[in-house]
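Handout, section B. The chain below has 326 residues.
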Amino acid sequence: MRPFLKMRIAAIAVALLTVGCGRNVAETIDQSRAASSLFEEFETVFYSKAELLSGFDAYRQLSKLEVTNLRFPFAYLQGALDSLDRPASADVLANSDAILVGAKDFLPPAGLGPVRSQRCYVAILKHRNSFVLAKYFRVPPVLSVAGMPIWSWSAKLGEFGEDDQRSSSLYATQVGQSYVLIANDPKELQTIAQHLASTDVDAHRLTEIREWASVSHHDMWGYRRYRHAGIVDPMAAGMADVTPTAENLIFFLNPAQKSAVLRLLASDESTAEKINAEMVKTRITWSPFRPTGAGAWETTISFSGDENSADRTFVVIGLFGFPVYL
């Protein structure tokens, strides 16, 4: 792992560059810190405004099945929080501006079910909130990081597949009144919490994340920086059609236009061609990847409200490491 860079002025500059109309500057800095921390540790980072994860009103233009598929990277979080003695997902979402998840080390389930991975969720709390994570636990914390308590619990979330009914082990902590973290690995939780608890504004390498400024202002986006080494199962990793020349996969939602953009950055066309061919083979109506410049291919995902549209959404989310074995 490369040394973590502390660049206060650069980080603030990056944050200000990504401020869109109606976005709060402090919120954008919090988002940049959280994204930076997750990019340091994880292969895929997904982001959503909290309001898009509760109810269907925010997605009036889309069908419920399309919305359900778009939210799938965050379903594990909501299940984990609602497995507490006092269900907490509604309160966390109500007190948050946005949620991010980092994922890596994708493994197949035992039998049918979702692919499992190491995950860490970061809820960016609203400013002037009074949220207290401790009140949702009746047991004392089991660990700590930088003086912050870490709670642990277990829940039946189907994490390991239908043929392996083990409970998931979950961990959570709160970083001041800025962040709530939930993970399925205590070391990953501690690492991200340590980053976020730093008094410095942590820039990491956001300036090195290609197209970060254009991606980060969307209300839902996903970004994958492909790791080609150590893949246990290409299908589970969403990489069955990904060649070694693929570098990044980018997704962002345009709900008002009932569409999303999927962009592939690679040194040649081999991955784009393989994904296009697979879509034809599976008979999913697909607007093919087309070159949009040097080293870039792009397709627009249209939301038409029918079954084929839901299938497209399901496939796209799977390309980021969230496929389901059916």
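Note. The CA atoms of residues 259 and 302 lie 4 Å apart. Compare this with the example in section A.
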